[in-house]
Specification:
single chain, about 500 residues, mainly beta, Hypothetical Protein Tm1070, Chain: A, Methylamine Dehydrogenase, Chain H, 2 domains, 8-stranded antiparallel sheet, 5-stranded antiparallel sheet, elongated
């Protein structure tokens, strides 16, 4: 569906006013009214210039009585202006007290009179950086940003689209003095899928607005935000690749970790009773059995494996595979980590997602609450950095928590609309899996800035470079001692069956 509302305007600037509306419509699909309010006790005279594609310029003058409001249709203001492409409207007055807006009406919507309203903009508030905070998914709505050059020279525009904490695409465009530029978002970025926000930078002052239309051609309007600078430069994308580890057995895997022997260890999950040892070449053997729904595991300084059991217990597995019940804990435990103090720390998804705490268990089996409430909600992953700071991930709301040695909790980052899984510390970053988005995230430990480090987002299991490879969900994480290799558990073709696969993420 193509909306006639949007046409590219290329016309020289003939009149510079105090106010500007970057785009006014006047065609068979959309009608526009201009509204002015004079809040003063004296009459105001307004000089108007409409600029249109092809160099057409139309002038008009309006007088506003004291304390009066006037609503004028486009064809009333400019009777010689025939229906066609939109235009930019410039306004000038001897008084700076003028207030104004404009109304766009979708005449071909279901009601035939669907309205949207925007405000006139002072040219003095123009800037060299514009942000369009939300341009919706083209699968459901058509959107279009509009930019007008209010400078004294040709503007060199750089338009950068951001999506999921990454740059989706970038376009350049030159814009003559006084010219407005309008384009459908999906024309600017042909690979666009999902919502974006847009930064427009130029070497001349700009003003802008954006429009969106649903399938009923009902319009909405939003002014662009003038900001001092654009989004911070993204962290350099990590170089590396993703390959699939070919295993000699089909496994069901929940928690996943790297052992002190450089082998991978996998818990069978709530319906199982085993922990497996997997070589880097994919050879599988049973390391321990007789467990009661093993969920996650971690190794202590003595080489013992500490295992959370879904029934509500913590088991300790000696290096020879002998299993002992160390402590009884709450039902629904999940992640486990060994702290710098030698104690064991346990997160709880909880019964029916009720988990709100992290417990501390001593090597002697004494259990106490270490942190609870606040931003802790269904915590899954848990990890410590070299400084002793704890990090935990919420399954429920995508929150990454930072927890100090006193159990004080603060939110480090929020990754929206995702169900987070396990977390591992790799240098200055946290690497985090996701149950929902088929990608691997990383979060800076200090700033909380997050990005997708691997995966296209499509549910598949193709190998390749980090951002070209695909995952069918990501869950368990095991990291090599040198932090160069991350092993990720996933499913094949997004089928959550009993068979999991292991993907090798190599960081170059």
């Amino acid at each position: 569906m193509r909306v006639w509302f949007l046409s590219l305007l290329l016309c020289p600037m003939a009149f510079a006013g105090d106010w500007v509306v970057p785009w006014i419509t006047h065609n068979g699909q959309f009608k526009s009214d201009i509204i002015w309010t004079n809040p003063t006790a004296e009459a105001l005279v307004l000089n108007l210039v409409a600029k249109r594609n092809g160099g057409e310029t139309f002038e008009a003058q309006v007088t506003l009585d004291p304390l009066a409001q006037r609503v004028a249709a486009v064809n009333e203001l400019f009777p010689q202006l025939e229906e066609g492409a939109g235009f930019a409207l410039y306004m000038n007055s001897e008084s700076d007290a003028l207030l104004g807006s404009y109304m766009v009406v979708g005449t071909q919507s279901a009601s035939g009179s669907s309205p949207a309203q925007g405000n006139i903009q002072l040219q003095s508030t123009a800037g060299r950086h514009l942000i369009f905070p939300f341009l919706p998914d083209p699968a459901s709505q058509i959107s279009a940003p509009v930019v007008v050059n209010l400078g004294t020279d040709t503007a060199n525009l750089v338009m950068t689209a951001y999506q999921d904490s990454a740059i989706l695409g970038q376009r350049e465009h030159t814009l003559a003095v006084g010219e407005p530029f309008a384009a459908v978002s999906s024309d600017l970025f042909p690979d666009l899928s999902g919502p974006i926000y847009l930064h427009v930078q130029a070497d001349q002052p700009l003003a802008g607005t954006s429009f969106a239309f649903n399938e009923l051609l009902e319009p909405s309007v939003s002014e662009a935000l003038v900001v001092a600078q654009g989004p911070e430069e993204l962290v350099d994308q990590v170089a590396g690749s993703v390959t699939t580890v070919t295993m000699d057995s089909d496994l069901r895997i929940d928690g996943f970790t790297m052992g002190p022997d450089g082998m991978m260890y996998a818990a069978e999950g709530w319906a199982g009773n085993r922990v497996f040892r997997i070589s880097l070449e994919g050879v599988v053997e049973t390391y321990a059995s007789g467990l009661r729904g093993p969920i996650d595991m971690a190794f202590d300084r003595f080489g013992n494996m500490i295992v959370t059991e879904t029934v509500g217990s913590l088991a300790r597995v000696a290096p020879d595979g002998t299993v002992e019940r160390l402590a009884f804990i709450l039902s629904g435990p999940n992640g486990v980590a060994v702290g710098p103090d030698g104690n064991y720390y346990v997160t709880y998804y909880g019964v029916n997602g009720s988990g709100r705490q992290i417990d501390r268990v001593t090597p002697d089996g004494e259990v106490s609450t270490f942190a609870e409430g606040g931003s802790i909600r269904t915590p899954i992953g848990i990890a410590f950095d070299d400084a002793g700071m704890m990090y935990s991930t919420n399954f429920e709301d995508g929150v990454v928590n930072k927890i100090d040695s006193n159990g004080q909790v603060s939110v480090l980052a929020t990754i929206p609309n995702t169900l987070l899984g396990y977390v591992r510390v790799v240098g200055a970053y946290l690497y985090i899996s996701s149950h929902t988005h088929n990608v691997l995230y990383r979060v800076h430990k200090e700033t909380g800035a997050w990005e997708i480090v691997a995966g296209t987002g499509a549910a598949n299991d193709s190998d390749g470079q980090l951002l070209q490879a695909s995952f069918a969900g990501t869950w368990g994480l095991a990291v090599s001692e040198d932090n160069r290799d991350i092993y990720v558990t996933a499913y094949r073709d997004n089928v959550a069956s009993a068979s999991a696969i292991v993907r090798h993420v190599r960081l170059d």
